[in-house]
Amino acid sequence: MRLYSTFVAMFMALMCAVTVSARELNILPEPLSVNVEAEGNYTVTAKTKIVALEELNNPAARFAEEMMLYFGAKKPMSIAKRGKGITLNIDKNIHAEGYEMRVNGEGINIVGGSEAGVYYALQTLRQIIVTNDSVVPYCAIKDEPAFEYRGAHLDVSRHFMSVEEVKEYIDILAAHKLNRLHWHITDDQGWRIEIKAYPELTEKGSSRKETLIGHGAEPKWWDGTPHGGYYTQEEIREVVKYAEQHYITIIPEIEMPGHSQAALHALPWLGCHEQDVDVWTMWGVTPEVLCAGKETTYTFLENVLSEVVELFPSELIHIGGDECPKERWKVCEHCQAMMKAQGLEHEEQLQGYLVTRIEKFLNSKGRRIIGWDEILEGGVTTTATVMAWRGAKIGAYAAEHGHEVVMTPLPICYFDFYQTESREGEGLRIGGHINFEKIYAWDPFDGISEQARKNIIGVQCNLWSEYLKNISMVEGQLLPRLGAMCEVQWSVDRRNEATIRQKMESMRKFYDAYGWNYAPYYFDGRK
Ligand code: ACM
Ligand code: ZN
């Protein structure tokens, strides 16, 4: 009897240990399954070997670098073809971005569906090591993403971010298993990409006289300080390569026909009336847009995009399409003549004509377009992917009508919004209010039929930078809310309100370890 109860007590203790260990892994985003099969830990040090074949050198090298930063070591962990330690392999039967990881006394064995899958396994492992004092409990993890498109946007027009700053942004996305960076590189307030055919775009269009630092338009709210910057094509290549090494595809956005005042300043003949305008120093929507009637506008856009596709391997190219007022077109002889020639009745259709023509051009280059949801108004075909921003209902409409859709609706996905209701201590932001809890609870499939769900290819958060001057401010808006967003993107049906706070406390250690800025509000219990 006594022996029996001792046995029961031991068994119960073991069960408790097992359960607690499994929970303490705190992996974010939530994996498909986590099992703790036996008691014990494997400790990773700067001397632990990574065992991988040549073809897995990239994920191995990235992990080694990331761990070197954590360990504060002089050298990255060594990568060997044979031996014991962290072993990496590929099995094509596993989901391309998925992986299986087993940890026991022999070491850590990782099998990914592809290089990317191995990389994501290593991100999970890095998280456990960093948040668990280098101790990895024996466990078996299976994982794969819910969405194929897991994006974050970054606006570098309103405030320019250096190559190093964009790389840090990429580091943060990669650690949360995102795989798309939507890079907003042109807008009214600055053209940020070197285009060899039109050097004026960056010579004149990349700097503005000053920046609006208040809400509204009183003279005292401008800072009187010129702001500018752009990326050379060499720098663009460097960033694209860096992103690729982190399994992130960069989708460049060249705004058209609206949000183009910086280009108009550089090349006034792009406007309906060759109007002389400044690189804009206001936020919002300007009436100054590209003329959609002149052939020279189309030649310009095609020449720009020809250089863009040489720089960005992404199949999807973002052509903007949002917020284009049509006042100038209504009184433009070229626009009106084009409408007549094409049999168009109203100016929305003229935008549709421009978008469709550019879509055909990009298709001829082997690419596809993605645009903000206004492209639906001009009557694009379902070959265009729609980025739903004006509300989840528009995304639902586009998905029901056969478009592939990236969900990034207001207000949930607008990470430039305030994070607390009181706004106390947040500094000046654009407006709104979106806290961690609202993002975490969001259902991107809400209102979408079972059949149309397959058209929702992914989810994205947006970082507009009107009031974000540098990467530290961007990070403070991104983190910790990206923790909630990545759970929607990677593990939508696996979210668990009971464990998320504990996971985020663990992630906080991770953010601290890498020196990333994050907002305190969620951790302080402020909503
Ligand atoms: C947008 O927020 N104008 C897409
Ligand atoms: Zn015109």
Bound molecules: acetamide, zinc ion
CATH architecture of the largest domain: Alpha-Beta Barrel
Poorly predicted parts: 1-20
CATH class of the largest domain: Alpha Beta
By helix and strand content, what is the structural category? Answer: alpha/beta
For the largest beta-sheet, the strand count, sense and barrel status come to: 8 strands, parallel, barrel
Helix percent reads 25-40%
Number of separate structural domains? 2
What name goes with the CATH superfamily of the largest domain? Glycosidases
Trace the largest sheet across and list its strands.
10-11-16-17-18-19-20-21
Number of helices: 17
Briefly note the CATH topology name of the largest domain.
TIM Barrel
Cα gyration radius (Å): 25 Å
Record field, number of beta strands: 21
Which shape, going by the Cα principal axes? Answer: globular
What would your notes on this structure say?
By secondary structure, this protein is an alpha/beta fold. It has 2 domains: 22-143, Chitobiase, domain 2 (2-Layer Sandwich), CATH 3.30.379; 149-495, Glycosidases (TIM Barrel). 37% of the residues lie in helices and 16% in strands. The chain contains 17 helices and 21 strands. It has helices at residues 2-24, 57-71, 115-131, 163-175, 200-203, 233-245, 261-266, 295-311, 327-330, 333-342, 347-364, 392-400, 436-441, 471-478, 481-491, 497-514, 521-524, and strands at 33-35, 41-43, 50-51, 79-80, 86-90, 99-104, 107-112, 135-137, 139-143, 149-155, 180-184, 186-187, 190-191, 207-208, 227-228, 249-256, 316-320, 368-372, 385-388, 405-407, 456-461. An 8-stranded parallel β-barrel has the order 10-11-16-17-18-19-20-21, surrounded by 5 helices. A hairpin with a 2-residue loop joins strand 6 and strand 7. Helix 2 (57-71) runs parallel beside helix 3 (115-131), helix 8 (295-311) packs across helix 11 and helix 10 (333-342) crosses helix 11 (347-364). The chain is globular and about 75 Å long. The protein starts with a helix and ends with a helix. 50% of the residues are buried. The protein binds acetamide and zinc ion. Residues 272, 291-293, 329, 332, 334-335 line the site of zinc ion.
